[in-house]
Structures are given as structure tokens and as C-alpha cells.
Amino acid sequence: MTTGSSGAITPVVGPGVDVETVRTDFPVLHQMVNGKPLVYLDNASTSQKPQAVIDTLVQYYTMDNSNVHRGVHTLSQRATDHYEEARAKVRRFINAEADEEIIYVRGTTEGINLVAQTFGRQNVGEGDEIIVTAMEHHSNIVPWQILCQERGAHLKVIPITDSGELVMEEYERLLGPRTKLVSIVHQSNALGTVNPAKQITDMAHGLGVPVLVDGAQSAPHMTVDVQDLGCDFFVFSGHKLYGPTGIGVLYGRADLLNAMPPYQGGGEMIKSVTFEKTIYNDLPHKFEAGTPDIAGAIGLGTAIDYISNLGMSNIYNYERELLEYGTQRLSAIEGLQIIGTAREKAGVLSFVMEGIHPHDIGTILDTEGIAVRTGHHCAQPVMDRYEIPATARASLALYNTREEIDALVKGIDRTIEVFGRGL
Ligand code: C6P
Q1: What is the CB-side half-sphere exposure of residue 110 using CA atoms within 13 A?
Q2: What is the tens place of the pLDDT at every residue in 165-212?
Q3: What pLDDT was estimated at residue 407?
Q4: Which region, left, alpha or beta, applies to residue 13 given φ > 0 means left and ψ of -120 to 50 means alpha?
Q5: Every domain of the chain and the residues it spans
Q6: Cis amide leading into 284 (omega within 30)
Q7: Has residue 6 got a pLDDT over 50?
Q8: What is the pLDDT of residue 299?
Q9: Ligand 1 pocket, 301 CB below 6 A?
Q10: CATH of 56-308 among 3.30.870.10, 3.60.130.10, 3.30.1240.10, 3.40.640.10
């Protein structure tokens, strides 16, 4: 449990993930929904928060609330210290070289838009190309489309195989002298595919092309080392990583961030302002205009403490085993097809059923207390690729159990009882 808004917590010790202990840390899990124990399998959308994160927010607003980098008074200094300590935690979590490379943003979406509107506008011109994959979330498509429209540039798309893997030969073919940026999802939210981000980065760097990695789905579930990946930008959201909503991170290599123009103007991002001239602040403040989400950043620091204490490789192994179990159980259901069967895959079971619309699956599952997401998952091009309107998606987190997978299977059986088998 937390000892304050700096967020030191009691570690859960021992090899692997002690899921029963972990579950006691998440109060929201212990409730009945529609008369059944809640089975929360919508973690790719947003994950639940451990008590330590909730306590940190309460502690911050109860004792420390103040603006950062502005006051000499004690509360402001305390808030600033906690806010900057959290930045250092983020830096260690993704193994960035320096705290100044960690920019707080609202989430993955804002991080990508920031890069598009600064690095993109500065470096992308008429006839240039940006490469994305066919399994991107809309957040990693639309900002580049807006930029391409403005600049007369083109979006190029690495296709995927039926199992949901990138066709790397096509990527090699697409990379060329007009490529100005490669922007790829690390782990697909719709398919679960984990892409070879290091190899993709190495290939782009061979031509001097920078790479952005969308880590919205990977950062909560596996070890991320931005120096090992070699990527130039990495973005993720706090709320998928057991932290608060409204806070996320853009990591950027310092030399690139220094060369980029600011994203938004206002307080905090300046050193001095006159009506004639403004001198911008140093990193990371140059990209943090206005009063930030202070409580969110500190809460994110606590979330990082929480999962770091469990160990990212323990979490990865635990969830991988759960995914294998879920894949086995769902595959055995007649008429059910899993969408996304890549060899490198994590945490996501997207599926369709013959003759039953995914929304109907989601509705019946909800009556059983089971939360899954249904729809296109903000990845419409993925649905188009598989010629389906939507999927039902169960997405896993470190507090899910085999028993919950069993409950999901029972819920799907119930759906078949209600709607029949694809008639
Ligand atoms: N995916 C899902 O249910 P934000 O909304 O900015 O926190 O994250 C956007 C985003 C970007 N990239 C990927 C790979 C994502 O999965 C998401 C969010 C959620 O799958 C909500 S649409």
C-alpha cells in the first residue's frame, strides 16, 4: 500500500505473479455486475487501478495539491518534487537515457499528434512518404493523414498476412529515399500481434529514417527498453498501465526533441516572453505548455512502481500463459474464429462467431457480469482486411485468472444458447 503521493508501495514478492494477492490490490474487481461476480476482460481499452494508485491521488489532493514549477512555497515544491520523481520513474521504466526525453502528454493519441505536428511539419514535404502498418489504431493513422494532406505527402501501408503478421518483404520494398518516418504499433490492440519493433527500427535506420513506436498496448504487458529497441519516439498511455486517465508519455531522443518546434504555446514552455520575441524553455518543458495533469503524472509513477515491483517479465510470462489457455479454450468452441493468430502475440483474444453479431455477444456476456469490448476497436482498416464489421475482444491483464477464462467460455456457450449456432 502507498505511503504518500511519491508512491512507495509494498512489493508482491516471489517468483511469478501471485494473482490472488494481486487481485486484493484492485478494489473494483470485487463487485457483482448483473448479479454475477465481475469478470473484467476489457483491459486493452483501459485497465483497473490498484489501491496504491487510488491512494496516491487521494494523498496528492488531500495534502500536496499545488501547481508545479511555479511557487517557492512548500506545497508547490512538494508537488514539483513528486511530479519530477514520477518522470524519473518513467525514464527508468522504459530505460531512456535522460529525464528530459520524457514528455508528459494526455495519452498515446496526443503523443502521436505532437510528433506529427512538430517533427512531421518540419520534416515532411511534397511527395514524401510515411510508413505505417495495416494493423494501426486510428491514432496512428489519422494524424499522419492530416499531415500528408497538408504537405502533399503519402501514407504507405505495410500489409499483413491472414494470421496478422507484417509482410516484412513489403516493408523492405516500401522503405525508400522518400520515406521520412516509420510509425508502427508495437502490439496490436485488435489482433494482439507483437511486431518486431527492433528489426523494423534497424531497417529504417539503415536509410537514416526515424521510427515512432506506438506502445499503448505493449508498455503495460512487457519490458520496454527504448535504447535496446533503438526507436526515436515511443508513446504510451497511463490508463492502460494501471495508472490514471489523462496522462501519458512521449519519449523522444533528445537531439530530435531539441530540433523540433514546440507543439503548443503558453506558460511553462518558455524561458522569456516579450511582444517581440519568445525564448522557449529547455526539454522537457518546451513541450509541456500550461498546467499539466500533476496528480495523473504522480499516479502514473505509483502505477509504474506497482508493476515494476511485480516484475515486467513475470507479468509477461503470466499473461502469456493465460493467453495460451484462453486460445485453447476458445478455439475448441464450434463456430468461433479467433482473429489474429500471429506467432508473437500478447494479451488479446479477438473473435467472431458464425451468425452472431459481436455486439450481441458483448450484450449477453454483460448479463453474465463479463466485460469485453465489441466493435472495430478504433482499427477499422483491420476489420476491412478481414472483411468483418467487428469482433468481440477479451483482453487480459495481470489480475485475470484461468477461472475468468472459464467464465468467458461459459458466457459464450450462453450466447450460443440464446442466438443459436450460426443459422
Ligand atoms: N486503444 C482499445 O480499446 P489513448 O486513447 O490515447 O489512450 O490510446 C489510443 C491508442 C493508440 N494505440 C493503440 C495501439 C491503442 O490500443 C490505443 C487505444 C483502446 O483498444 C481504446 S480505442
Answers
A1: 17
A2: 999 999 999 999 999 999 999 999 999 999 999 999 999 999 999 999
A3: 98
A4: beta
A5: 56-308, 311-419
A6: yes
A7: no
A8: 99
A9: no
A10: 3.40.640.10
Ligand 1 contact via 189 beta carbon (within 6 Å): yes
Active centre residues (catalytic) = 378
Separation of CA 72 and ligand 1 centre (Å): 38
The CA distance from 244 to 247, in Å, is 7
Share above pLDDT 90 across residues of the chain, in percent, rounded to a whole number:
95
Give distance in angstroms: CA of 188 to centre of ligand 1: 9
Contact 5, 59 (CB under 8 A): yes
Q: Which of 349, 359, 350, 301 is nearest to 325 (CA)?
A: 349
Nearest CA to ligand 1 atom 8: 108
Does domain 311-419 fall into CATH 3.40.190.10?
A: no
What is the atom index within ligand 1 of the atom nearest the CA of 45? 3
CA of 373, closest atom in ligand 1: 3
Question: Which strand (E) or helix (H) includes residue 404?
Answer: helix 402-419
> Which tens digit of pLDDT belongs to each residue from 331-384?
999 999 999 999 999 999 999 999 999 999 999 999 999 999 999 999 999 999
- Nearest CA among 393, 138, 51, 109 for reference residue 238: 109
Q: Quote the ligand 1 centre to 202 CA distance (angstroms).
A: 25
Q: Which residue lies with its CA nearest to atom 1 of ligand 1?
A: 45
CA of 14 to the centre of ligand 1 (A): 32
374 Cβ closer than 6 Å to some ligand 1 atom: no
**Predicted confidence (pLDDT) per residue in 88-135, tens digit:** 999 999 999 999 999 999 999 999 999 999 999 999 999 999 999 999
User: Amino acid letter at 249?
Assistant: V
C-alpha distances out from residue 158 to 104, 130, 155, 182, 339, Å: 30, 11, 10, 10, 18
CA distances from 265 to 25, 122, 175 (A): 40, 17, 34
3-class DSSP assignment, residue 223: coil
Does 185 sit in the ligand 1 pocket, CB within 6 Å?
yes
pLDDT > 80? residue 300 = yes
On the question of pLDDT at 241 being above 60, the answer is yes
**Ligand 1 pocket check for 373: Cβ under 6 Å:** yes
